[in-house]
Amino acid sequence: MPFAVHHTLAALGSPFSLPCQPTAVAAPQWLAFNPELAAQLRLPQAFWGTDTGVGLFSGNNLPDWTKPVAHAYAGHQFGHFVPQLGDGRALLLAELEDESGQLFDLQLKGAGQTPFSRRGDGRSPLGPVLREYLVSEAMHALGVPTTRALAAVLTGDWVQRETAEPGAILCRVAKSHIRIGSFQYLAAQGDTAQLTTFADYVIQRHYPGCANSANPYLALLEAVISAQAVLIAQWMSLGFIHGVMNTDNMSISGETIDYGPCAFMDSFNPAQVYSFIDRNGRYAWGNQPKMASWNLARFAETLLPLISDNTEQAVALATKALQQFNLINETEFRALIGKKLGISEATAADEPLIRDYLNLMVKNSADFTLAFRLLSQSVADINQGAATLFNDQTAWQQWAGRWQQRLAEQGLTSADLQSSMDAVNPALIPRNHQIAKAIEFATSDGDLTLFNRLHNALKTPFMLSEQDEELGHPPTPQQCISNTFCGT
């Protein structure tokens, strides 16, 4: 099939987006390229690792099939509403159609100032680009809906943050970059006609089945609630902490978006926070379902005039839809953790077993990833595998005995159980200390060896080769990362 390009968001015009050209950079050069994703998008090979590709992904020489725009949105940032945010350092170049007909945004991040930059420089340091490249591609390999990394280039310019850092640009791909904040932006303007136009666009692009519903806008709300409830459960099951779950960072399509101060937990702690700017723990691991629900309530508020002309009825319908979030999220989380424990179809009766293992992990400061990965080695012998992670052996033995009894009810062999568990419990995640080390090497002397090694290993997170075994090790006390940062 031929290369197919669309500009459906740009075609909506103002106020949904504004045209904007990227700012030229001094001396762009390749950092990374994703040929598998390029093939999926049917991107012509003239852009694969070539000078022509550098021209595209740096923004220095855009082909005529691009039509760059900056998307407009608002958002609640740590609970405080800002009526205009928008793409302050990102530009949507085009929407590419894959072989299945699915549209994907092609967006440059760090491409310079836009109409929404406010006082920002529109640039990105190298570190956040490498972090997002690694973590977003790892999330994809782990089976979690996410934006993806297509390319990264070094700009040849310096970006001033606390110190001067090398600049870089990331080209990321998503089903779209539309957020809850996109709807908040329009709702704040009080223009119901524009809001309706945008809601119809989102339905057509992401949830076409809603158009046939008796109440399409209520159906849209329900669809987004369901997608986000499942997504958050997936994050939680992997020990992932987004770090900045503002409404402008929550996508309508149900993808993980805007990797800033994100991190995967090492030792399990439900109150764990890494983001330097999250001083009160608003977006801690254990708070993510509650905050997602809060964000979705803000989304529901924007749709009220579309759901019903009768405000009281609209509120009642939206409230009922929002009440489904916890049920969907908790059911999905139980199912995911159940599978990680080797329980093929976890029910409410399994919740005490699941809860008690999580509590055991917390009390023993067990590494989140290893506490599940090593559990398959404990299927045949509870003195092996995960047993080594728990100082309180009495509590472990008591729990493990109950767990083995539950597994026995399924009538599966130890080999089958171990295989199914290893297929859902990663041996490798993007460890904070390894990412920090890769960024340090790349920033200080341009050494991408560890970055490339991590990138390749994270493509198969459920199979860790012998030569990469240390990449899966938790940090030593000296290697622990306390804070992560965004790139703005």
Automatic annotation (TrEMBL):
This is Protein nucleotidyltransferase YdiU. Mg(2+) binds at residues 249, 258. GO terms for molecular function: AMPylase activity; ATP binding; magnesium ion binding; manganese ion binding. The lineage of its organism: Bacteria, Pseudomonadati, Pseudomonadota, Gammaproteobacteria, Chromatiales. The gene is ydiU. Coiled coil: none annotated. InterPro entries: SelO (IPR003846). Its cofactor is Mg(2+); Mn(2+). Its EC number is 2.7.7.-, 2.7.7.108. Belongs to the SELO family. Keywords: ATP-binding, Magnesium, Manganese, Metal-binding, Nucleotide-binding, Nucleotidyltransferase, Transferase. PANTHER family: PROTEIN ADENYLYLTRANSFERASE SELO, MITOCHONDRIAL. The active site is at 248 (proton acceptor). The keyword Transferase applies. Pfam families: SelO. HAMAP family: SelO (MF_00692). It comes from the Bacteria. It catalyses: L-tyrosyl-[protein] + ATP = O-(5'-adenylyl)-L-tyrosyl-[protein] + diphosphate; L-seryl-[protein] + ATP = 3-O-(5'-adenylyl)-L-seryl-[protein] + diphosphate; L-seryl-[protein] + UTP = O-(5'-uridylyl)-L-seryl-[protein] + diphosphate; L-histidyl-[protein] + UTP = N(tele)-(5'-uridylyl)-L-histidyl-[protein] + diphosphate. Nucleotidyltransferase involved in the post-translational modification of proteins. It can catalyze the addition of adenosine monophosphate (AMP) or uridine monophosphate (UMP) to a protein, resulting in modifications known as AMPylation and UMPylation.
